[in-house]
Amino acid sequence: MNDVTADFNIDRVEAVLRVAEAALREARRMKAELDKVKAELEAMGARSVVTFVVDDIGDLYAIRTTGARERLGRVIGPVGERGLPGEKGEQGSQGSQGERGPPGPIGSTGEPGPPGASIRGDAGEKGERGERGPPGLLTSIDTWVEKIHYQGAIVIHGGSTYQALRDTASEPTAGSKDWQALALKGKDGQSLTIQGTYKEGNRYKALDVVTLDSCWFVARRDNPGKCPGPDWQVGPVGKRGEKGPIGERGPKGENGADGRDATEWIAVKMDRRNYTATPIMSDDSEGPPMPFRELFDQYDAERKGS
Q1: What is the reported pLDDT for 80?
Q2: Which of 147, 157, 241, 279 is deepest in the core (most CB within 10 A)?
Q3: What's the CA angle centered on 94, arms 93 and 97, to 5 degrees?
Q4: Does the pLDDT of residue 255 top 60, yes or no?
């Protein structure tokens, strides 16, 4: 307890003592007044007094048997000013437990708790082997002919492969309800066609190969127009080497024999594994091989629209 609080409590105690002393003096005075009244009444022989009453403002009255009311004097003074609050009393003992109150409202749902531990049982024993199933429907493949083909039969017709979904004598087609297409016929492949030296005015088709001015060209489409042009694809040509140094002048040679006629391209040797074509000349010699893999890749990409 600090000094300020201690001083404040002493003042309160002193004030209470002063009020108590004043009340004690008033009580003694009232007792003296009552004793005096009693003595006077006894002297007067007032045996007719029945009782004494004090009204609301503190006056004392004698009520006689005749009903007369005689004021004897004021016995209670006016209400004094309110005193200072007293010190806080000691904490009382704990009361008895009250009755159980009504149930409160339902609370909000709490957050989900952590997942519980997984309980996994032991693996069961290996079961018995089941019965052997029926044989599969994939059988030998036959060429389709007009007859009854039973469910599951596989036939080849028009370059495509079909399997019968039910017993049927109908012809297999891609939209048939009796046949399921396993593999449909693809488009026919195309290869290069060697046409020799280009001649203006000739009619050329896609993938025709011609030579012109020591180069070779492949037609991109039918009726490609004049070569070279936008519808002709020139084949790859080796890079020309650098010019070497001039050699020493040699001695004049003797006149040679008459020369042979110029050779022409009369055939081609195809290397399908490496996608190359080698010209066969009129003197049975072979010209430089011509690679076509890049042209086939380009043609395939253009055909697919990529």
Answers
A1: 64
A2: 279
A3: 150
A4: yes
Average pLDDT for 6-33: 74
Distance between CA atoms of 178 and 184, rounded to whole angstroms? 16
Q: Are 164 and 139 in contact (CB under 8 A)?
A: no
pLDDT band at 239 (very low <50, low <70, confident <90, very high): low
pTM above threshold 0.85? no
275: left (phi over 0), alpha (psi -120 to 50) or beta: left
CA distances from 37 to 32, 51, 75 (A): 9, 13, 12
Note the pLDDT tens digit of each residue in 20-64: 788 778 878 877 777 777 677 666 654 555 567 776 677 777 776
Q: Which has the higher per-residue pLDDT, 230 or 239?
A: 230
Nearest-5° Cα angle at 176, 170 to 181: 105
CB 36 within 8 A of CB 44: no
Strand spans (E) along 8-116: 49-54, 59-64, 69-74
Q: How many CA within 13 A on the CB side of residue 19?
A: 14
- DSSP labels for 169-226? -SPP-TT-SSEEEEE---PPP---EEEEE--TT----TTEEEEETTEEEEESSSS--S
Exposed, middle or buried by CB within 10 Å (0-12, 13-18, 19+), for 122? exposed
